[in-house]
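INFO batch 0412 | record 1 of 1 | parsing
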Amino acid sequence: MTANGPSSRYRPGTTYDEMIGRNGRVRSHWQYLVRGLDGMGSDGLSGRIAEARRLIRDNDVTYHIYADPHGMGRPWDLDIIPLLISSKEWSRIETGLMQRAELLNLVLADIYGPRTIIKNGVLPPELLYANPGFLRPCAAADFDSRLHLYAADLARTQDGTVQVINDRTQAPSGVGYALENRIVMARIFPSLFRDSHVHRLSGFLRTVRLSLMNLAAKPGSDPRMVLLSPGSGNESYFEHAYLSNYLGITLVQGTDLTVRDNRLWLRTLDGLLPVDVVLRRVNDDYCDPLELREDSYLGVPGLLQVVRDRNVVIANTLGSGVLQNPGLMAYMPKLAKHFLGHDLALANTQTWWCGESSHLDHVLKHFDNLVLKPFDFRGTHQSVFCSALNETQRQQWKDAIQRVPHRFAAQEKAGLSTTPVLAANHELTARHAVIRSYLVTRGDSFMVMPGGLTRVAGSEQSMIVSNQFGGASKDTWILASEPEKLESLTVAAMPATLESRPASDIPSRVADNFYWLGRYAERAESLVRLLRVIQDFLSDPMAVAGIGESGYCLSRLLEAVTFQTTTFPGFVGADGDAKRRAPEQELMTIVVDAERNGSLMQTLNAMLRAARSIRDRLSTYTLRVINDIDVQLQSLRAWGADNLGNAYDELDNLIVSLLALSGLMRENMSHEQGWRFMETGRRLERAINTSTFLRATLTGKTRAINESILLEAILSVNDSLLTYKRKFPAQLQAAGIIDLIVRYELNPRSIAHQLADIQVQLSHLPMDRTHGELSNEERLIMEALTQLRIAQSEPLAEINDGQRHALAQLLMHLGIQLPALSNQLAQTYFYKELPLHQLVPIHPESRR
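INFO prediction complete | emitting tokens
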């Protein structure tokens, strides 16, 4: 320790401490790191914290805490002090983990096979058959019951012995977060990381990819693999998208898959593609509503039968959640003797299953010193630390145990070692920690990730180590005796034979989200442009009072806000005149009220949801801009509640981010199917908004007044003022503006340009052209574009009886045709059921 360094003020907990030995000295394998951290001082560590947070924000690393108002956008919490384990100690842990995984693999095969452990009395039948994780439909002679992935939660006893406190066998989470933690740590501590000789993670991820390939494929074949996710509302959806990209497999949800002809297929815009391997992150019983949980919307009807017939492999196999029963841990020593013939090298925490009378008596007698673990996996119960309960709560839990004892297990209260965490005051403080380590099958054995995901409690006294309850994460460094060969952590490090995801694997759901991402982004940008122009008039008392040309212009612009956002009655209802004279309150709700349909806040929230639902398809820079918009929304919400002027200032930053998003999507994305739907959505939304805006400003009852201020405002809202001045240097005229904004196809802001671009995008989308006829959507866009091309600007600008009837009629037709086009696109691409004749043939080499 350095005399004045952060480590000198560190006070370890009363249990085993990872950094400080019982003699009060820094453990030998921590010394190099401690010297480095002390050398940085508080200022240096503060800079590293800021850099880590920036990297996490820029990479849009999120974790959804369900009670958090940030929701899907909540940043991942990483503490920058790693947890260190020596290579020698890790070797012992690794051996024990591999043995435990092999044992659980044997137990799983026996449970869904001969069940010798039941017949021979090794396991009480109630422990298995009363367990909601035991899926009877999976108990078939031809069912493939293998454990492909496994994770164990590790903790230390008071004397430093490592024990398993939880087995994770259903859909182990956290690998992606562990990898992201490593990437961030390697960047903020490059020298410390390099000189510490930390074991690298890339080899483990490559093994996961190859293991998945080998589950279904014959040598030389290229199986199609998907990662099945519950969707963007899941707490760890970031990880699902992250692993999908890293492993090079398609991220899907249950609705993207279907069972046909006793095969599992991926629904895509080009047809149905056969699926060979599913890496699932959906719980067992949700995977097939036909045979398992009938109220599930997350799975695929008929999936279980496809698995039985060996036409698809699921990792982990359905039914593997039965091994997560904490009561099973009470019998692990007996199971080890039964299957292996010897004791476990890595024991689990002493456990009692209340379904056995002697165990029940022990639990009730020593209740206050135990951790209670209900195991109805469909409930919401967490581990209960009995010592923290009051008398009433203790009695309630005891009564519950005695009513249904087989649904409860209890564990000895593990000491949980402490490890240093960098607190908000930049001082090191001790927090309880748990390490989750990961294993994957490799041939006939298992490979262990060198390290894993360390989680720490949210406060010094807390024993609850959970990210859902305020905990944080750490990188786990396994220290090698010498430097390892440097390997990249990116997908490029995968074997050259692994091909990238083809463009044709776009499911309809993904196309739908791309389409609406484009529409919501354009809708928000159009509204912000309109609001920024309105702001220029709000400082003019004559305009607000409705007097003169500026008053007439502001009145029309405010009405346009209501029509464009559909926030009726707004400025056009019975109270429209009063609201136009004091528009601030109405404008404020249109900007910041997330509950109001059509508001800017609601539109941007919808845009963020669409973007994060397809985050596996977006580049890092695009996600960075998405995250910037999320941060700006939070600022906008805070300012808008009290001061519309400050909220308007935030709109300047927002419009820049929206323009950056538009540029990135156009210049950085491959112009494949996803991009074409996004571009179609953007162009269609701009055409709808522009036609709605012009109807509100130019086709109503016109006063006998000079329109020059209104015409200039129309050009400003459409970002066409400079173009107009170059094309028509004379006085502002309605005919010239209508020509530029409605008909001139070379103006990227015109309605005609949008429709022409949509026509191009539609020509590249998959369509049934067997009869050589135009599709319904092609007919609609051709009809709308033809109307604009044959129209003439002068007649459109003519005023008769105080109104522009020809322009109103043209825009009214567009107001019917463009929404009809949107509905037709949805019917053709987003919600259709593909017939059997569109199944993509299976290559003979990939058929099992």
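INFO post-check: The longest helix spans residues 508-538.
INFO record closed
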